[in-house]
Amino acid sequence: MADPSASGGGFLRYVRRAFAQRWNLGLFGVATAFALLSPAPDALVPIVLGLEGAYLLGLVSRPRFRQYVDAQEAAASRAVREGTAVDLYSQLQARLSMGDRQRFQRVVDRCEDMRRLAKTAHATATPDDNLRESALNRLLFFYLRLLVARRSLEQFLQQSNRAELQSQRTGFASRLAGAETAGDQRMVASLQDTLKDLDTRIANVDKGEKDAQFMDLELTRIEGKVNALAETAITRQDPGELSAQVSAFTDTLSLSQDVASQMISLQDLELAAADAPPILGRARARQVN
Length: 289
Prior knowledge:
The chain is an all-alpha fold. It is 82% helix and 0% strand. The radius of gyration is 31 Å and the shape is flat.
């Protein structure tokens, strides 16, 4: 009897995977061909179909088979996400200035140096190393995205002249006063709309400057957290203490992402959606190979 958890859409998904097994397709094909070529195909084909249906139902009802299917699909989905994250990682690095690229690489090199020192100080690896590496990958990826976002803000501010915008606003405000005195409603409406747009542009520049200041502070803060977490590879803290520290780092990272995602300049980076690629350690080496 099939497990209730295998009902509905999930049930059909498991049936398709069971039917698509190579050996099942081979045996089913041979049996169907034999039945069709036999003297009594009308009798044998329904029997073959019935046996195949009973086999599929029996296989799908087994928890181990469903777990196998779930594991295979999860692995495929994980591979797609990792590939997407690696592509995004390369794209983001290409958008950095030379100075920012060197700054990011210095932080990565610092983490790798701590890993090498840890190997010389401690003969065996521990599960904590994987926990630390995963957290460092997340912190480094967010650090990279902040560098790219700050670069975009710098380019926007370089192309924006607040003094010029304010001068234009003063001039148009004077013309608006003249148009209101003359009673020219067409000119008044046009100038009012122009002033509204200038106010919006000036506000964007002001917000961009504040966002740039916030990013400078966040970059320094995240860089410090990366270094602090990387150094725990040498000290080999108590597993419970390390787990709490990693949780605290990732909690502050989530908060930083929530704040950063509210900035106009960060919307195109999909901060919450992108998974961290393997930047450090063995996972990175496997990706390169």
